[in-house]
User: Which sequence fits this backbone?
């Protein structure tokens, strides 16, 4: 029930008509002439979608790795081993080298060669196994072996080949050459090379087989320079801040043919928070206060694509693009003001459930004179509170170099640029981050 | 006449849009000014509201509906949306009702012009201003206000209470200033 005065006020306002201004219609026309806004997916759904894609990729990779592992086991348990046993039996029991042992040997050599370069190998015609020994030897000696040898000579990065294993492969290929020649000459002696130890057999089966993908795990840490343009009371300001050890965590990367990779990870990070015209800042304005910095302690879940630009035995160069999903855990803000009080104003802790962490006196350089010409040290109050925003996300672009340390391990250095997409949408500022991360990667 | 304008707006005719805008501009700007802190902010809200009107006018039932009431509702909703958007950026302090003292009635409202009242309302914080508008001027109940602004009923009541107290204080200040002016 409104009082008489309230009713009076209501009537007055309802009768009020401010004058028309042509500028309002001009602004309206401008709005109408602008292209209709495309409905852009909110960053929340986009981030979750990116997370799902990344998660699915990692799970898929794990599944594929397990499946591939089983395949290797089967191949190791069935064909090569049985072939070897059969071949050895034939050598020992049937010195005349029966056609059956020849066929087995051919099939074994076929396995070895085609596994050496699976993408280049041409499937052999079954008729080769029985009759057409001449064309078989020609085929072996011209196509597969030369391809395999070329790959070895080039030092291809498709499969990690150590000097020791490379020597063994070359020996195998020489033996196979001799073997294929021997098929042309029925009276010639059979090749002497037979894998006799499990190590050698594994070498044949697994070492030379290129993986179309590999999985790597890494740990990294880095630093961040944040350039934050923002507005306080419609005045544009610029803040440049630097964070040491801003993030640290684990990365997982799935690489296909050493060229394209999908990566994700989990990092604990210290992220710059958007400086804003908060009520806290307004209230502190009476105390000549200014916000010095705002940081989020957050979890980062980057998801993105990696492309190899240059691959070498010693160094690789790559480019990355993706989205950093940032889940803010705690916000820490640092306010500086000039006060004679040794403690901050009593109202400070009531705002945003802020908790006072510490108070520090600033250096003499920051000292200012009070109106009474007395010098008072400005103080910085470090506050901890619930984050202003629980989630935001960043566009992530980087280029890096990996220095290979041995067969599986490499050290990388990676400069990056991050544009905070969440703050771009808001009118009160934009946050740009330049980072430099270093890390260690182990490839499986 | 309204029906011709509406048909023109449905067809996207700029002249019809301009006529509609000119016809309701002052009335709706007065609404937006009550919800904003200055005229510039009010005209931004007004144009956002009219943009919604032009985009959705095909849905308006011009045979039975009241166009002015429909536009008015859009303007109020746009103003509330604007407040809620701003709320995300600014942390708005909510006061404890128990700590408040009872305020007097607006004895001197009759002496104030509409421009003065708008000026005073614009000096309130967004939270007080919005609740004050919704309760006193739109006639909404605290429960409706609480639902619309996603606050508790108690907060709505206390914000209204404090808004009135602040209004009274501002009115007194204004009159003191005027009196001083006359005395000089």
Assistant:
């Amino acid at each position: 029930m409104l009082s008489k005065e309230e009713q009076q006020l209501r009537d007055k306002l309802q009768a009020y008509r401010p004058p028309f201004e042509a500028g309002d219609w001009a602004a309206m026309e401008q709005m109408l002439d602008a292209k209709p806004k495309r409905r852009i997916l909110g960053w929340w759904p986009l981030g979750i979608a990116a997370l799902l894609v990344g998660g699915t990729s990692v799970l898929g990779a794990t599944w594929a790795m397990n499946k591939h592992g089983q395949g290797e086991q089967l191949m190791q348990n069935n064909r090569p081993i049985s072939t070897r046993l059969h071949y050895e039996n034939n050598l020992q029991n049937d010195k005349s080298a029966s056609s059956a042992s020849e066929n087995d040997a051919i099939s074994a050599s076929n396995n070895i060669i085609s596994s050496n370069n699976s993408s280049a190998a041409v499937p052999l015609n079954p008729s080769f196994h029985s009759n057409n020994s001449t064309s078989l030897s020609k085929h072996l000696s011209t196509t597969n072996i030369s391809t395999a040898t070329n790959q070895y000579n080039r030092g291809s990065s498709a499969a990690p080949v150590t000097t020791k294993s490379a020597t063994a492969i070359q020996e195998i290929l020489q033996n196979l050459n001799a073997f294929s020649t021997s098929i042309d000459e029925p009276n010639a002696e059979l090749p002497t090379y037979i894998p006799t130890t499990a190590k050698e057999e594994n070498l044949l089966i697994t070492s030379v087989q290129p993986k179309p993908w590999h999985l790597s795990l890494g740990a990294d840490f880095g630093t961040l320079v944040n350039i934050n343009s923002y507005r306080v009371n419609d005045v544009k300001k610029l803040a440049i801040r630097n964070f040491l050890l801003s993030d640290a965590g684990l990365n997982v990367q799935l690489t296909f043919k050493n060229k394209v990779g999908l990566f994700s990870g989990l990092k604990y990070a210290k992220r710059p928070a958007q400086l804003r015209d908060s009520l806290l800042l307004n209230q502190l304005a009476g105390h000549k206060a200014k916000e010095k910095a705002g940081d989020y302690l957050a979890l980062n879940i980057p998801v993105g694509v990696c492309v190899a630009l240059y691959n070498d035995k010693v160094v690789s160069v790559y480019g990355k693009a993706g989205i950093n999903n940032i889940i803010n855990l705690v916000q820490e803000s640092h306010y500086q003001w000039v006060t004679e009080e040794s403690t901050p104003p009593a109202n400070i802790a009531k705002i945003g459930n802020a908790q006072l962490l510490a108070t520090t006196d600033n250096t003499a350089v920051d000292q200012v004179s009070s109106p009474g010409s007395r010098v008072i040290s400005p103080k910085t109050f470090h506050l901890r509170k619930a984050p202003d925003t629980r989630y935001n996300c960043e566009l992530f672009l980087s280029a890096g170099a990996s220095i290979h340390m041995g067969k599986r391990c490499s050290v990388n250095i990676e400069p990056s640029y991050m544009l905070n997409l969440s703050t771009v949408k808001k009118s009160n500022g934009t946050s740009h981050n330049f980072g430099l991360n270093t890390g260690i990667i182990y490839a499986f | 006449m309204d029906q011709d304008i509406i048909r023109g707006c449905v067809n996207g005719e700029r002249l019809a849009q301009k006529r509609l805008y000119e016809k309701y501009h002052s009335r709706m700007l007065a609404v937006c000014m009550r919800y904003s802190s200055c005229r510039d902010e009010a005209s931004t809200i007004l144009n956002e509201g009219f943009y919604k009107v032009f985009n959705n006018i095909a849905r308006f039932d011009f045979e039975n509906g009241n166009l002015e009431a429909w536009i008015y509702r859009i303007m109020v909703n746009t103003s509330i949306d604007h407040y809620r958007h701003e709320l995300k950026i600014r942390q708005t302090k909510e006061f404890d009702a128990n700590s408040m003292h009872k305020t007097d009635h607006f004895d001197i409202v009759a002496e104030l012009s509409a421009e003065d009242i708008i000026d005073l309302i614009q000096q309130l914080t967004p939270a007080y201003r919005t609740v004050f508008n919704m309760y006193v001027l739109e006639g909404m109940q605290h429960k409706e206000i609480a639902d619309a602004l996603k606050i508790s009923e108690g907060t709505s009541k206390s914000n209204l209470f404090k808004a009135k107290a602040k209004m009274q204080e501002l009115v007194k200040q204004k009159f003191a200033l005027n009196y001083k002016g006359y005395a000089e």
Q: What stands out?
A: Chain A touches chain B at residues 2-6, 8-10, 12-21, 23-25, 27-29, 31-32, 276-280, 351-352, 388, 426, 428 (CB under 8 Å). Chain A has a mean pLDDT of 64. The radius of gyration of chain A is 35 Å. The first strand of chain A starts at residue 213 and ends at 232.
